[in-house]
Write a structure and sequence with these properties.
Elements lengths: L3 E6 L2 H12 L3 E6 L4 E3 L4 E3 L2 H9 L3 E2 L7 H8 L5 E5 L7 H5 L5 E5 L7 E2 L2 H7 L4 E8 L9 E8 L6 H25 L14 E2 L4 H4 L7 H10 L6 E5 L5 E11 L14 E3 L4 E9 L5 E2 H7 L10
Parallel strand pairs: 1-2, 1-6, 2-5, 6-7, 8-11
Antiparallel strand pairs: 3-4, 7-9, 9-10, 12-13, 13-15, 14-15, 15-16
Helix pairs in contact: 1-2, 1-6, 5-8
Length: about 300
């Protein structure tokens, strides 16, 4: 027996889940995603990755600006759903929507709850120096990522991981959780585990302040900040010039070194931190492509002894 579902999601992270759910044979009768937005230099109107995939599957797509609008909720009520599957949709669902499907709404989240509830769990886990994270499917309720957990998979965080590489592993692992979860739900064999109230942390939305590298921090924390923001939105510093040049750092490795925080210690971009130093290995000058440290140093003035801001 297949479940009658709605799917709600927007980015690539969500599209992978939609593909697995459809592949498992479930009846996805409608997809909800964010409306097309104008993007790029030409400002062409672009559909979301989930929107594009749904059209390939021949699934009707709805793109409400506000899910809480009465007309949207009435249409959702009328779908007579067994369940709604939600992955990085980008809108808060009102209680009426959570209650509409017979079995409620399930959400895939990219952390091991209650750690990193909120908007940026992948980035925050790396920035905090966590060694493990995971994906979980939970029953949605009114609180922010507070619902009981139905299915989990632990994912280690390697020292070489960036937000980009970890995102891709969690995307694949999370997508593969859906068929298992839905099959168990049909059998009636799922056990909901309430979240602990201990160890709650919040993955607040990334800000401009999060991006600027603070060289006064220990080298390990600086390297984690850089990895956690790579490749997007990117941690950065500014090269001194008449007009400071912004440089995004994609990867750095902690090393031994002493100096004033931000001081360039050698000609291979070893930068002093509050404790220890980091060697910058992948960089991107504003308006340019990503390059390794040697190529960057050849094309930019980075003399030893200069203090970066």
């Amino acid at each position: 027996m297949s479940l009658r579902l709605a799917f709600m999601g927007t980015p690539d992270f969500a599209a992978a889940s939609l593909a697995e759910i459809v592949g498992a044979g479930h009846d996805v009768v409608v997809v909800y995603t964010q409306p097309p937005r104008r993007r790029g230099r030409g400002q062409a109107e672009t559909k979301t990755p989930v929107h594009q995939l749904a059209e390939q599957f021949g699934i009707p797509v709805e793109t409400p600006e506000k899910f809480k609008d009465e007309v949207v909720l009435e249409q959702f009520d009328a779908l007579d759903l067994d369940l709604a599957c939600v992955v990085a949709y980008g809108q808060i669902l009102p209680q009426r929507a959570l209650d509409a499907p017979e079995l409620g709404c399930l959400n895939l989240h990219g952390s091991l709850l209650p750690r990193w509830r909120g908007a940026a769990p992948i980035q925050r886990a790396i920035m905090a120096g966590d060694e493990v994270t995971g994906v979980q499917i939970m029953q949605m309720e009114a609180g922010l990522d507070t619902g009981p957990v139905l299915m989990s998979e632990v994912v280690p965080i390697a020292e070489t991981d960036t937000a980009g590489t970890l995102h891709d592993r969690l995307m694949t692992t999370g997508a593969m959780l859906w068929p298992r979860t839905l099959a168990a739900l049909e059998r009636g064999s799922l056990t909901a585990q309430p979240q602990s109230e201990e160890g709650v942390t919040y993955a607040h939305k990334l800000t401009a302040e999060d991006r600027r590298i603070d060289w006064s921090r220990p080298a390990g924390e600086v390297a984690d900040q850089i990895r956690g923001l790579s490749p997007f939105p990117g941690a950065y510093f500014e090269l001194p010039a008449d007009k400071p040049i912004r440089v995004k750092v994609h990867f750095a490795v902690p090393e031994k070194g002493e100096g004033e925080p931000g001081e360039i210690l050698d000609d291979q971009l070893l930068i002093a931190c509050g404790r220890g130093a980091v060697r910058l290995t992948r960089l991107q000058r504003e308006g340019k492509g990503v390059m390794d440290a040697a190529d960057f140093a050849r094309g930019n003035t980075v003399p030893v002894g200069v203090v970066l801001s």
